[in-house]
Known about the structure:
The chain is α+β, with helices and mostly antiparallel strands. Among the domains are: 61-128, Nuclear Transport Factor 2, Chain: A (Roll), CATH 3.10.450; 226-347, no CATH class. The protein is 49% helix and 11% strand. Helix 4 (126-136) crosses helix 5. The protein is elongated.
Amino acid sequence: MSVRLPGSRWYNTVWRWHFYAGMFCVPFVLWLAITGSIYAWRPQIEAWLDRPYDSLVPTATRAMPEAIAAAAVAAVPGSRLHKYELPPSDRSAVRVLVGADSGDRRVYVDPYRLRPLAVVIDDNRPMQIVSRLHGELLAGAWGSYIVEIAACWTLVMILTGLYLWWPRGRKGLAGVLYPRLSGGRRLFWRDLHAVTGIWVSLLALFVISTGLPWAKAWGSYFKEIRTVTGTLDGPVDWTIGGRKLSDDPMLGEHAGHIGMTMHPQGVQPGELNRAVAAANALHFTPPVLVSPTGNEPHGWTVASDAANRPLRAQAVIDGATGAVLARKGFAERHWIDRAVGYGIATHEGQLFGIANQSLITLGALMLMTLSISGAVSWWRRRPSGRLGAPLPLSRPRFGTALIVAIVALGLAMPLFGVSLLVVLAIERGLKRWSGIARWLALRTIRA
């Protein structure tokens, strides 16, 4: 007569869903960890890539911003000015973003010789590609949906893993906080998976949660919730599903539309020169972008696009006079926007410098270790001729707490709820096929 530990039905159910989540998530976790750790070092990588344009030899004469912008527009026939970036130093080329029917181009202009040094498609810059690989698999909205589903199930994988890791009658910390090295390879891989999981779990939960506002479905869902609750303070300044819905500079009635593909209205000679002079006097954190608002005569927007989002600030300048019409900093935004901003800055590794980048990279390496050790452990333990999923017990007990938790997760992450229903329906359907059911371990055993 076998003796079963209390709660083993619940334990077996959690283990089963942890296995399902892991089988689906492991490839995506590896992908997101690699691309995310690369993107965390974006400032250093972009500085290295742009080094030929930041080592110019200054001369006695430097062109005015309007002449520089005109040289950039002339380098792309049929284009128009979108954004003028203040150069980081006297030895730097001026980056000018111009728009054409074929898309935006970034033009590097030597401000001393009025010579375009390079013209690149803005979306094809290396770190822009890495960003799209990370957030949407280069597959647009559908890629964003897939990444979001993977993120939701990764949360489930981590939460169920924590439950499975929780010590039950074990003495000592071996196999709990550090792996046992003397129990053979099978035990080592099991311990490496469990121990890595506990050490990286909190960071992983934070990184995944702070990435959801970018996702196509969850970001739109979050936006609608804020609209209904009256907490939406203008358009958000992060992308949703790979698209920036608006570049609202948080300035209420003076809000500009940075980067809109339209011809600036009412721009007069001298306005860009005055706007750039005013932007320099504001001392915003670089990179600082100056662009026509497009909706207000003589209006120009000055916006800090700092990677560390809490350092961002924006203003509207009267191009006719150079006066500051409105100004708004990060601290003046709605608290929800500030919370998301802090989360995104940490997620991208930019909130507290090299330490933040190193922490994100370490977390990515630990997630890769977690995924690889889980895959190795599964491969070594799986029965011959079967997938290796835990067998379901008969009559599993789904208590109130479990049901409430599942419903709460489904409401908080709608794509998880939908995908869970799909998985349950598929599992139910596959039980009718004895061969497949046996391979997938879908046959119920007696409790």
